[in-house]
Amino acid sequence: MRITAIVNGERRQADDVWPGESLLYVLRERLGLPGSKNACEQGECGSCTVYLDGVPVCACLVAAGQAQGRSIVTVEGLAPGGVLHPVQQAFLDAGAVQCGFCTPGLIVAAHDLLARNPAPADLEIREALAGNLCRCTGYEKILDAVRLAANRTHGAD
Amino acid sequence: MRFLQPATWADALAIKAETPDAVPIAGGTDVMVELNFDARRPAALLDLTRVAELADWTADNGQVRLGAGVSYARVITELGGRLPGLAMAARTIGSPQIRNRGTVGGNLGTASPAGDCHPALLAGGAEIEVVSVRGRRIIPAAEFYTGVKRNAMEPDELIAAVHIPLPSGPEQFSKIGTRNAMVIAVAAFSLALHPDRNEVGTGIGSAAPTPRPAAEAGRFLAAALTEAGLWESRGELPDSVGERFASLVRAAAEPIDDVRGTATYRLHALAVMARRTLSWAWQDYQRAGRRAGSEGG
User: What is the distance of C-alpha A99 from the center of its chain?
Assistant: First the structure.
């Protein structure tokens, strides 16, 4: 089947999509967007988190056909023209990246949190990131990064 | 495999009648896992996310009609005040990403004994509205779960909605797992006090082949409250009542040993959760009585 969707603001098309295929597979293998990571394939790890019509979801749990005509934003879409989003810059500056595998999903989840709640309390950060696993560092620097991004964007007001 | 994507409810029912082995998919949080792991290769997927009729809820005649396609996230944000027991259960599900996609209708379609909504639906006296081209059936939650991941639906039927009475008293939910997020329940329990009819609703999760009510425990508690005049007085609940209620809840369960826990642990946990939810709900009931009293005075 053919899938057409708006991906990171551009109309994209994928052909010969198997009907049982996930949106994650389409993004990575057919559209050349490897930012969203493929790890657990069961919604446990959050590494494949993308926006689907503005709502963060695990791309591995969206059937490709369900994305037909929808708008998708991946981690690549958060840095148009290669200019890092403040959340991405904060992850770098806080040392919240080690192997980097969980990072794209965490960036999208943190991006969504700060869009909804520019000055989250620690418990709200933890709740918002509860669906994203990191197996390298523990989570302290990731929490630091979210606080840093919140301070830089909200604290600057 | 075919991908069938009806735009209307009438089309969805017609497709299900023609293709009864098509697997309905909404949030995909169960179906896609099976596909990703090669555990299932259905002849067709029936995508219900374009059917507008499933995507909303209404409240009237003393009940909420919750469309099968409403996400857990919306149950929490839009129905937390009206349906506190179901919203509490929904808050314990998965992660934000999962709650953005998963639906109560999907939980019912999968009918896992560990599904988090089921105890709350049982305690709240919910009814499931299932529809086919042949007509409509309303199935009480207590009759809906028929076996491990089996429900009372016919192959040509789809879940349209869940009808949940607006509660007349407090509701509580408790779930045991190894962490707060992303956990399949080791055991769960839901309690609803129904002072409008002096009844008590209960629901047990992950501790029997199906979600099930602890019917005898509910009858015992309702009668004990009636005999002691506690529905009206909202006085202190004797410890003995809580103990007896907990032991009857425990007796209603039929758990197994599995990777998440042992049967012995589940029985113990259920008794603890029964006692705790009762004490929480009773405190809620007493507080609500004091509030009403001060407003009335």
Answer: 16
- Reported as type and span, the H/E element at residue A54 is none
Of B1, B27, B32, the CB nearest to A60: B32
Is B177 an interface residue toward A (CB < 8 Å)? no
pTM higher than 0.90, yes or no?
Answer: yes
User: Which of B3, B34, B183 is the best substitution to test chain A (most A C-beta atoms within 10 A)?
Assistant: B3
Which run of H or of E encompasses A104? helix A103-116
CB contact under 8 A, A57 and B97: yes
* Closest C-alpha among B17, B283, B73, B1 to residue A112: B73
B105-161 residue pLDDT tens: 999 999 999 999 999 999 999 999 999 999 999 999 999 999 999 999 999 999 999
* Contact at CB, B33 and A68, closer than 8 angstroms: no
Q: Count Cβ atoms within 10 A of the Cβ of residue A78 and give its class: 0-12 exposed, 13-18 middle, 19 or more buried.
A: buried
Which chain B residues contact residue A58 at CB under 8 A? 97-98, 101
Residue A116: how many other CB atoms lie within 10 Å: 10
ipTM: 0.96
A94: tokens are: 């806080």
Angle between helices B72-79 and B84-91 (to 10 degrees): 140
Residue B121 forms beta bridges with which residues? Answer: none
